[in-house]
Prior knowledge:
The chain is mainly beta and 278 residues long.
Amino acid sequence: xxxxxxxxxxxxxxxxxxxxxxxxxxxxxxxxxxxxxxxxxxxxxxxxxxxxxxxxxxxxxxxxxxxxxxxxxxxxxxxxxxxxxxxxxxxxxxxxxxxxxxxxxxxxxxxxxxxxxxxxxxxxxxxxxxxxxxxxxxxxxxxxxxxxxxxxxxxxxxxxxxxxxxxxxxxxxxxxxxxxxxxxxxxxxxxxxxxxxxxxxxxxxxxxxxxxxxxxxxxxxxxxxxxxxxxxxxxxxxxxxxxxxxxxxxxxxxxxxxxxxxxxxxxxxxxxxxxxxx
Length: 278
Ligand code: FE2
């Protein structure tokens, strides 16, 4: 076993998106622009309704997937092709925007705490113009693996080494998406080989990984090695995401809500959107 090294540790940055939703951007910042195949990661967590009520009114996407994981609260989504629903506490929505759609993501609550993550996962060239598709699962459909030593691993996508499989198929990049809770002093170990880009995103407590301490809200981008090892070193249990996927290794042209392979394709996306062709 070779413990995976840490390439870089970053701290999330305060940001605002949609109609004034306050969030912490962990990936997609000047310090951490992307981590192939992952483009962006936002975390939101607030009990102040004014931080989230504006939501994310109608906006387009093309060329990648958006993954919304609600830790607490409820979010309603609706697109221009007739798809709609509510992502409930603990639920996941893995949306392939593909060739494009226009959708809104609005809080289904006017008070109370709302927290969760939105991750953007890139698509390879051959899938950027594919038909939009949804995978949606409520909390009861997401298995939790309890390990010796006290770790619990909620498996959203992919399969753990112990065989627990998440409901979401990891799609084009063979993604792993685990939500791990680790008691003080406990160790989480999971074989994830270097051919998968992997990151650890700490949102409670602190962990030591690859000799470095990462506390909330920080992320560690992992390098060489074949096993992820993280020890909970904070004053209370740690909670973190393990995100991994196969790098796409293609040119990335990113313009607002469109992520394509070339500037021309991004230009085309803006034209198609303006002309109502989504
Ligand atoms: Fe969106």
